[in-house]
Amino acid sequence: MKKEKIFLKTSFLSGILASCFGFCMAGMTGLSRGMYPMAVFVMIILIGLLLMGIAVRGAPDEKSPRISWKEIVMVLFLFINPLMAGILGFYFAAFLVIAGISWLITPVKTGKALAGVLGYSLLVTAGAFAVFTLGLKIVTPSGILF
Description:
InterPro entries: DUF1468 (IPR009936). This is Tripartite tricarboxylate transporter TctB family protein. Keywords: Membrane, Transmembrane, Transmembrane helix. The protein is mainly alpha-helical. The chain has helices spanning about 10-30, 35-55, 70-90, 90-105, 110-135. Helix 1 runs parallel beside helix 3 (about 70-90) and helix 4 runs antiparallel to helix 5 (about 110-135).
């Protein structure tokens, strides 16, 4: 029986990244922001552990797909987001991350597509601000803008 390389499976790597992201966010926010964000981060950690478990128990003949550079950059955006949120503010950092990831997955890179990506990112960020800050009164990290 051929020994499989468990660390190269996409679901195992996704589980590691999800768990690390959950730990990173939980460590940065702590309980100072309330129970709601901490519960979300604990769920992200548990989902990551579940993905790792599924990969370990997966079929031995499963092929290991390649991970593209775009996927790596998107994951880096997610890890950089909490660091930027402390400096730039939660919503401005979220706008940059949403715009960056959206631009990466846009198939045709034109000026019109860029305007669409920026408009979409602004709409999502404004919607998040309206729901979380104005509606639910959740305190988010402030930065250079507000």
